[in-house]
Amino acid sequence: MRSLLHVLNLSVQSPNRPILHDVSFTLESGQVLAITGESGSGKSTLALSLTGLLPPGFQTNGSIRLEKTELSTLSERDWCQIRGKRLGMVFQEPMTALNPTRRIGTQIGDTFRLHTTLSRREIDTETRTLMEQVGLSEADVSKRAYPHQLSGGQRQRVLLAMALACQPELLIADEFSTALDARTQAAMMALVTRRCETQGMAVLMISHDLGLVRRHADHVLVMKDGACVEQGTTASVFNAPRHPYTQALLTMSLHGAARTPLTPLPVFTAPL
Ligand SMILES: Nc1ncnc2c1ncn2[C@@H]1O[C@H](COP(=O)(O)OP(=O)(O)OP(=O)(O)O)[C@@H](O)[C@H]1O
Predict the structure, then answer these.
(1) Cα angle: 243, vertex 203, 239; to 5 degrees
(2) What is the Cα–Cα distance from 67 to 65, expressed in whole angstroms?
(3) Rounded to the nearest whole angstrom, what is the distance from the C-alpha of residue 13 to the centroid of ligand 1?
(4) Ligand 1 lined by 43 (C-beta under 6 Å)
(5) Contact (CB, 8 A) for 214 and 182
(6) Helix (H) or strand (E) holding 21
(7) pLDDT score recorded for residue 252
(8) Assuming Cys at both sites, which of 144, 165, 212, 223 could form a disulfide with 41, CB separation 3.0 to 4.6 Å?
(9) C-beta of residue 5 within 8 angstroms of C-beta of residue 87
(10) Do residues 250 and 134 lie in contact, with contact meaning Cβ atoms separated by under 8 Å?
């Protein structure tokens, strides 16, 4: 296994105040790292820093290295070569990530058009295969459909297809399965895990769902107030949490109370 992502002393400052403080971790290829912590602890800010998508006016310090590429100083032009190709992303709200005016097949195909030299026919075949892999069979969803014709879960599947299209080295998934039903969530995670095993893809998943984290992550990093309070293998963090905050999170989760104080309930988008 090779070391893929190195984050060293990453700090992020919004125009008003510091948000992340000296966050450091590494992620190896083929491994799943879960970032967890309560609402407002900085998980999404971390995901945005790793994808070069922080809002204007935010400043970062420290290093984010994807193998030999330093990401923290990349120009927007260079980012376009990395996002969608070496780095796949799936975020929480599929409707904002998809273009409402373009058919879903076209949007999946765009990823191939942008990053590969595949012919039109090959892109068509790849798009169909990917749609099947994420559970969007032709019988249920046409690739000619528009995002608004899909349910929230189907839109998340489209986003996952786009993220996986170019076989990225790293997938960053921010609460992407939170709004999915248990069966769909399990199917999507199985697909992601298979990519880790067969292609060595690494996954940084952000989730407040400790059950999901325990089932799927190899390592866990716990965040509080923009800092990492604990990190380690999933077994060590769950079986012998050292930090009182981690202990409290696990206790709340055990008693089914985690969701209430940690994060608002997910918003479901009903099928149209
Ligand atoms: N665009 C922004 N401008 C200013 N502050 C922001 C912005 N986005 C996030 N923050 C602040 O940064 C802190 C961390 O927010 P972030 O969304 O990263 O937390 P989170 O752990 O992902 O929370 P959640 O689980 O609710 O998504 C919060 O205090 C938030 O108010």
Answers:
(1) 30
(2) 6
(3) 11
(4) yes
(5) no
(6) strand 18-28
(7) 85
(8) 223
(9) no
(10) no
